[in-house]
What we know:
By secondary structure, this protein is α+β, with helices and mostly antiparallel strands. The protein has helices spanning 120-132, 141-158, 173-189, 196-202, 208-219, 223-240, 245-251, 257-268, 272-283; strands at 17-21, 26-30, 35-39, 43-50, 53-57, 60-64, 68-72, 77-82, 88-99, 103-104, 109-111, 114-116, 159-162. Among the domains are: 14-162, Sandwich (Jelly Rolls), CATH 2.60.120; 173-219. The strands form three sheets. Strands 1, 2, 4, 7, 9, 10 and 12 form a seven-stranded antiparallel beta sheet that branches. A hairpin with a 3-residue loop joins strand 9 and strand 10. The protein starts with 16 loop residues before the first strand and ends in a 24-residue tail after the last helix.
Amino acid sequence: MDKIEGSVLGGMAMNALSLTLTRSAIKMQHSQSWNIDKVNSVHDLLICLTGKGEYEIGGEIIQMVPGQAMLIEANCRFRGRTLSTELYTGVAQHFKLDVFGRMDLIGQMQLKRSVMLPRWDMLGPLVSHYRETVPLSSTTFAQHHLFMVLLIEFIEAAFIGWKRQQAVPVNNPDALSLSVMVAASQIAADPLNDETVDRVLSSVPYNLDYFRREFSRQVGLTPQKYQEFKRMERAMGLLASGRSVKQAAEFVGYHDSYYFSRMFKRYIGVSPAGYKAAEKRHRDGSFPRGEEDGLVVYPILQPKIEA
């Protein structure tokens, strides 16, 4: 859940997303005689654990094998059958993922229909646990959060790009906020590319001056400064892993270590050397007075950073 750098949802505000499980998960356990032909009114994420299944969706044939996940979008007709003598098992979860409780986020993305989930050695036992602990009817807090982990893994693996957003009236605050979050996510996913901001802004369906002002109001930084901040986040990870200040600076695109240090302190509130020292103290189990809980709160995203 802490996967932020370079992630598809890296620029999404937590309180903007709303995941709803519309029913308890289906514990797939299909014999050779199983077949289905139906339409669901909500999205459906399928993950195969054993056996082999085949689906036809919009003329496309998808074969499911262990470790493979597939998204069936809402209102999409599909046919399915078992291909193996072994039981075809897994989970199927009906869900909605909305922005501000009103706009379908999945519908804003271009996604591969099916993918092999990465890190299956870790996710496989989690999917099995999710399947075995699913309640008979209602949905639970634990089920909700376990599924969010699985859904994020699928989105990260299946993501192709954001659909081009259509121009909408400027008095539609939800659509505008979605555009801001999509732009922030695109910048967060590729902060080391000098052309990222220009590329992202070129696809925005709003007047650019107006959009920059709204981006600054909602995110707290201009698009360019937000990219710099995301570079500093990358640098934080490098410094914490033992890289030198010079190495971290060069990796995130700064050839002048002194200038990098100034920028790092500007955004993070402490020098790179000071950050490395604090991280080392924490790894060694030593905390300054007042920080015995191990939490150091850096003034990330300071409120006043001029464009």
